[in-house]
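Try it yourself: sequence plus 2'-O-acetyl adenosine-5-diphosphoribose, in.
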Amino acid sequence: MNFESGFLSRLKRAKKVVFFTGAGISAESGIPTFRGKEGIWNKFKPEELANFDAFIKNPDMVWEWYQYRRKIVGSANPNKAHETIVEFEKYFEVTVVTQNVDNLHRRAGSSHVYELHGNIEKNYCVKCRTHFDIPFSEEPKGVPVCDCGGLIRPDVVWFGELLPHDQYQGAEEASEDSDVFFIIGTSALVYPAAYLPEIARRAGAMLVEVNIEATEISDRCDYSFYDKAGTVLPELLKALTSHPQN
Ligand code: OAD
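Structure, out:
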């Protein structure tokens, strides 16, 4: 893969770099994306599984679906793309802002991760809000109940729910402050997360997209690289470290 010298020079001058990631970065770990032919929302209806009313109406079904997804996530491992982002910490102040709930950035070893849509390995009680960080994989079938009598739900953001305030605020500040803002493996269709690239762009960051195909955001990016994240990122790191200092 060829990277323009102007692009590499600008990247090399950067101090603060944000990696804004979506389901596509975990595709090479075997975790399905949401949209597209093989996407989760092509097979399941979000209104039946990923909103609070659905959970109250049919908690066991929603819980079982999340248990099924936890199994997939639990047997997946971080891939070259997650690992290369950790490597980038040797050269930049790196912040990861992810829409993914799969915990793979943390498992890969990224130091600063904002999780905009929660974390599938965590749970909390809908009544007393107690958090349970241990996955309920050993539980019998059906939704577990807290000591207070409340149902325990996955700690993920469902449709119609607000993003965790501290996570979004931290992500917004990092975006505004970034010199380079990578957009990796996301269709950039879901808001408010999808505001972040625009916030970064207006604050002067260089926007760089990595995706297997063009997206809604491609037109606004300074550079787009159309290939798998697990291919582009390691090649970029190699090019960066062998590129002469300007
Ligand atoms: P999508 O499924 O909408 O988009 C995945 C993107 O990854 C697409 O643009 C693909 O082209 C791209 N892609 C697939 N494989 C790739 C690879 N190996 N390398 C690089 N790119 C690849 O997933 P998200 O954008 O993450 O929200 O979806 C955003 C939100 O919608 C999710 O967080 C979830 C969903 O509903 C909630 O659950 C709240």
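One thing you can check immediately is this: The pocket of 2'-O-acetyl adenosine-5-diphosphoribose is lined by residues 22-24, 27-28, 33-35, 39, 50, 99, 117, 157, 185-187, 189-190, 210-213, 215, 228-229 (CB under 6 Å).
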